[in-house]
């Protein structure tokens, strides 16, 4: 063999896949023996029905190494013009991420690999950060209640519209939108309104009051400042909609609210917006944390998540998610929204930006950009231009007329993108990244367009600004947290203190069924912070984002290969948004064929709660299909209901593998039945981690599916967001994928329903993560990952079967990538509930599996392919030990009321206290197995009292002692 051949043989293109997949070859062999098969291929054959199983390799490029992939993405990022500073505005601004936040939050797996804080006791750090976010939003907006973030500003405004319609009890179906609301927000709201039967009127600001009085809408949507920069007192417009019986929604720039009268003080009912400019890079449009604040009367209609303060079992203050009856798994088709996610990681960044700068620092930034705008306004006047608005905060609109293109070209020549507005207007949105040299260059561009010599900055008289009557008089960010961490040591230690309270993937396995908490490799995360990806405005000229578009097109093609579909849209910025977009595509297809009457959506009773909520949002009526005793769709019930509703059948929503963790044998028959009756099949892609390389949505007969890139394709959960939920569709549905009014390349403009997110490609800046994962795994690695995910689940199911009944299995005795452990019998025999088991697992250092869903009283376990055999064995040992504790209660060897399960979790303060009155030892409480002592996690609080928290809702910051005193 030649030296060159030797070199080729020594190249290890599969190294990344071996590191991503936890078990070694020897461990895989041992685990296969436990589950009773001799190979991964044989295991797959026993798990995935032969009729849908594929033997062909995925048509993807071969695996690349970490170094090659990072270099490839660096080259793509370099094709984007990050050297051009975008002063376009329209809801997106340049910002400076404080390095202490960049390194210790965005780039820190202790923050980005955490799960949604449903288990409050081991999520106190994230919950405190989100409480800070809510407090920041309520202070800025001037309203008492805010949620823990939404997906972006456009969808937040759409959510506010739905809230307003519910609050006014449908007395009107008309919403009035001011013409100076950002165009992408108008488009998202209009798209959301149409399936719900709402009428949208876009009205010039001067005509708003007359229109509201004549139309009596259920809501009025305003921008503050407007998209071209104008600031106006909204009090009269808000009063007019109140007189008409509607609600006032104001989309507001948070930095402006540091200096301007907050909308809540003008009477606004709902205030929404984006916190992007609080330290979160533009990233070609996302992800960014949208926000919503409401009057107290509307808090129970507010979508998404709300963090509240309650007490733990020891009477100490503790935070948790509040008012969880709004969660979609509970309310299903009666939910006000399908949003069951937040942008937690980005909300944490934005809140920490406010903590870092404090009220004085934010005011300094706001005053500086406002002064910059006034200086450029003075330069424009000096150059002979008029301003469209005399009152503005940080954005001016120059009436350039026929000189508009010359002004834009002159600015571009000097390294700046400006905004085009109708009627020859040129917008310049100032931000904290603009330097003195930048200002001088912009003045030169303005003077050149006006045919004059550029003055010195010192010679320019500032013009305009916001009137004194609109200057903020109320205090902002008064909570102690915003005044305490301005030294870097203090901030660093605060972030570390919060991180240490939580359990994330960098500490232990998070075995949540249906949530796929798998490895988010460091190599995948590195490109996210490349300037060429972070510093790109979503509305730059297309030739400035060629690297992004190239990456997006490749990723789309790879996802087509994985799903077997003809086309993919990456715009939906959450799984819930993907569901909605998929159903809109089906709805649009029916309507294009003249089938306007098809509005019935069949949904199995086991489906994710977002499924029925999404169907209702898409204008469909939900009909529930039952499941049989094995957890499969009840075929007889499905046939009966498909026949009953054949004339109006629009779609079936089905999760595959099923929500019960099983590959249903009859899936092709199910799809064929729906097609026979004229409907389409929507496949929920939550469980794609069990399909990739073995089968596909197209192979089972589905027409559309959404993919959770934050599950199967390695984008980290970030404590409950960000996510990406793209949809793949068969060829006949491709014309109905999302589009965007600001970018033709985003989708099929002529036939699309429109956008489902504010940005053309949704959360574009985190797409490099999934790109890198697919690129480094290659077709063989992706298939092996799926096989090992199935192996790990079956290994756990086999090892725990003698201790916990496994509720559902396939026809050959196998589970898919997750298994359901039945804990219902323990409540009667041992007095131990599934919640007791979940809380006791915290003492062993583990986050609990998915609790009481899809079956009450069960635990759904998904280990993923990333966990080693050693970690699986530690989890198994913990579950076996807990079963032993339950058995001790059953046999009377432990007290039924005072035992380690009922008292779990145990805090360090409790274990170290001089008084210990329990009949079991401190060691059993805190160190129940030998491995625990070597890597002990101490839950910071005892079990949280949810009932107390909902009865005494507190959702903003105060000294924690104040909550305890109030409880006393």
Automatic annotation (TrEMBL):
Family label: Belongs to the GcvP family.
InterPro entries named among the record's database cross-references: GcvP (IPR003437), GDC-P_C (IPR049316), GDC-P_N (IPR049315), GDC_P (IPR020581)
Gene Ontology MF terms in the entry: glycine dehydrogenase (decarboxylating) activity
Keyword field contains Oxidoreductase: yes
N6-(pyridoxal phosphate)lysine modifications at: 711
CDD domains, per the entry: GDC-P (cd00613)
Pfam families xrefs: GcvP2_C, GDC-P
EC number(s) per entry: 1.4.4.2
Limits of the Glycine cleavage system P-protein N-terminal domain: 18-444, 483-738
Chemical reaction(s) catalysed: N(6)-[(R)-lipoyl]-L-lysyl-[glycine-cleavage complex H protein] + glycine + H(+) = N(6)-[(R)-S(8)-aminomethyldihydrolipoyl]-L-lysyl-[glycine-cleavage complex H protein] + CO2
Reported function: The glycine cleavage system catalyzes the degradation of glycine. The P protein binds the alpha-amino group of glycine through its pyridoxal phosphate cofactor; CO(2) is released and the remaining methylamine moiety is then transferred to the lipoamide cofactor of the H protein.
Protein name: Glycine dehydrogenase (decarboxylating)
Taxonomic lineage from the root: Bacteria, Pseudomonadati, Pseudomonadota, Alphaproteobacteria, Acetobacterales
UniProt organism field: Falsiroseomonas oleicola
Protein keywords: Oxidoreductase, Pyridoxal phosphate
Cofactor: pyridoxal 5'-phosphate
Domain Glycine dehydrogenase C-terminal: 785-906
């Amino acid at each position: 063999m030649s030296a060159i051949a030797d070199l080729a043989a020594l190249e290890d293109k599969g190294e990344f896949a071996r590191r991503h997949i936890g078990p070694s070859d020897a461990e895989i062999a041992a685990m296969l023996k436990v589950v009773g098969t001799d190979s991964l291929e044989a295991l797959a054959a026993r798990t995935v029905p032969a009729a849908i199983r594929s033997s062909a390799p995925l048509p993807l490029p071969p695996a690349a190494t970490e170094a090659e992939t990072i270099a490839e993405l660096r080259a793509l990022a370099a094709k984007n013009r990050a050297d051009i500073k975008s002063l376009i505005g329209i809801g997106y601004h340049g910002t400076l991420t404080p390095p202490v936040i960049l390194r210790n939050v965005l780039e820190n797996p202790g923050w980005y690999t955490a799960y949604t804080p449903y288990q409050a006791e081991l999520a106190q750090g994230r919950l405190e950060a989100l409480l800070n976010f809510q407090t920041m939003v309520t202070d800025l907006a001037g309203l008492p209640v805010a949620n823990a973030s939404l997906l972006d500003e456009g969808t937040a405004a759409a959510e506010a519209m739905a809230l307003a319609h519910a609050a006014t009890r449908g007395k009107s179906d008309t919403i009035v939108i001011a013409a100076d609301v950002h165009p992408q927000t108008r488009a998202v709201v209009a798209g959301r309104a149409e399936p719900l039967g709402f009428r949208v009127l876009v009205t010039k600001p001067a005509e708003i009051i007359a229109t509201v009085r004549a139309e009596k809408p259920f809501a009025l949507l305003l921008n503050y400042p407007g998209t071209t920069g104008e600031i106006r007192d909204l009090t009269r417009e808000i009063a007019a909609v109140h007189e008409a019986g509607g609600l006032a929604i104001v989309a507001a720039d948070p930095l402006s609210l540091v200096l301007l009268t907050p909308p809540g003080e003008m009477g606004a009912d709902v205030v929404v917006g984006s916190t992007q400019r609080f330290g979160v890079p533009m990233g070609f449009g996302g992800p960014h944390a949208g926000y919503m604040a409401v009057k107290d009367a509307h808090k129970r209609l507010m979508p998404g998540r709300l963090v509240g303060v309650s007490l733990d079992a020891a009477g100490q203050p503790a935070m948790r998610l509040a008012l969880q009856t709004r969660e979609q798994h509970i309310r299903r088709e009666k939910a006000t929204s399908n949003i069951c996610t937040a942008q937690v990681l980005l909300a944490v960044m934005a809140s920490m930006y406010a903590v870092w700068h404090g009220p004085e620092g934010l005011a300094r930034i706001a005053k500086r950009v406002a002064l910059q705008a006034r200086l450029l306004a003075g330069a424009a006047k000096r150059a002979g231009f008029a301003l469209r608005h005399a009152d503005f905060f940080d954005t001016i609109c120059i009436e350039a007329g026929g000189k508009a293109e010359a002004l834009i070209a002159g600015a571009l020549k000097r390294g700046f993108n400006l905004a085009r507005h109708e009627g020859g207007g040129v917008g310049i949105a100032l931000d904290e990244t603009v330097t003195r040299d930048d200002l001088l260059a912009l003045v030169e561009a303005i003077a050149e367009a006006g045919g004059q010599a550029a003055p010195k900055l010192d010679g320019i008289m500032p013009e305009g600004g916001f009137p004194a009557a609109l200057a903020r008089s109320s205090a902002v960010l008064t909570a102690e947290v915003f005044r305490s961490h301005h030294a870097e040591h203090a901030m660093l230690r605060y972030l570390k203190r919060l991180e240490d309270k939580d359990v994330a993937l960098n500490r232990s396995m998070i075995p949540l069924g249906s949530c796929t908490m798998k490895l988010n490799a460091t190599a995948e995360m590195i490109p996210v912070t490349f300037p060429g990806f972070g510093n790109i405005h979503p509305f730059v000229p297309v030739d400035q984002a060629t690297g992004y578009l190239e990456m997006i097109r490749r990723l789309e093609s790879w996802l087509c290969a994985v799903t077997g579909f003809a086309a993919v849209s990456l715009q939906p910025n959450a799984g819930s948004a993907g569901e909605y977009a998929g159903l809109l595509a089906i709805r649009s297809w029916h309507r294009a064929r003249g089938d306007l009457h098809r509005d019935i959506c069949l949904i199995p009773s086991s489906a994710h709660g977002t499924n029925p909520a999404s169907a209702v949002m898409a204008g469909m009526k939900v009909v529930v299909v039952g499941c049989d005793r094995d957890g499969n769709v009840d075929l007889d019930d499905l046939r009966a209901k498909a026949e009953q509703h054949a004339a109006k059948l629009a779609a079936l929503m089905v999760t595959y593998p099923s929500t019960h963790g099983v590959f249903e044998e009859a899936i092709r028959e199910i799809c064929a039945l729906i097609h026979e009756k004229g409907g389409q099949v929507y496949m929920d892609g939550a469980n794609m981690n069990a399909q990739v390389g073995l089968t596909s949505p197209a192979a089972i007969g589905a027409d559309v599916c959404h993919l959770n890139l934050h599950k199967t394709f390695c984008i980290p959960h970030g404590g409950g967001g960000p996510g990406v939920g793209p949809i793949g569709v068969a060829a006949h549905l491709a014309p109905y994928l999302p589009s965007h009014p600001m970018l033709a390349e985003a989708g099929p403009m002529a036939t699309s329903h429109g956008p489902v997110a504010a940005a053309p490609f949704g959360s574009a800046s985190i797409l490099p993560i999934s790109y890198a994962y697919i690129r480094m795994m290659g077709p063989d690695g992706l298939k092996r990952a799926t096989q090992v995910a199935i192996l790990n689940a079956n290994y756990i199911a086999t090892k725990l079967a003698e201790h916990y009944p496994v509720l559902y299995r396939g026809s050959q005795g196998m589970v898919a990538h997750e298994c359901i452990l039945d804990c219902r019998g323990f409540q009667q025999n041992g007095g131990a509930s599934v919640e007791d088991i979940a809380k006791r697992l915290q003492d062993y250092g583990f986050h609990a599996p998915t609790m009481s869903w899809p079956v009450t009283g069960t635990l759904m376990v998904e280990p993923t392919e990333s966990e080693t055999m050693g970690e699986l064995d530690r989890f198994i040992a913990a579950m076996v030990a807990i079963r032993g504790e339950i058995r001790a209660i059953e046999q009377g060897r432990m007290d039924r009321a005072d035992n380690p399960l009922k008292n779990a979790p145990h805090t360090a303060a409790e274990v170290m206290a001089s008084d210990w009155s329990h009949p079991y030892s401190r060691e059993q409480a805190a160190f129940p197995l030998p491995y625990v002592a070597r890597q002990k996690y101490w839950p910071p609080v005892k079990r949280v009292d949810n009932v107390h928290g909902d009865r005494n809702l507190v959702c903003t910051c105060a000294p924690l002692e104040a909550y305890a005193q109030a409880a006393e």
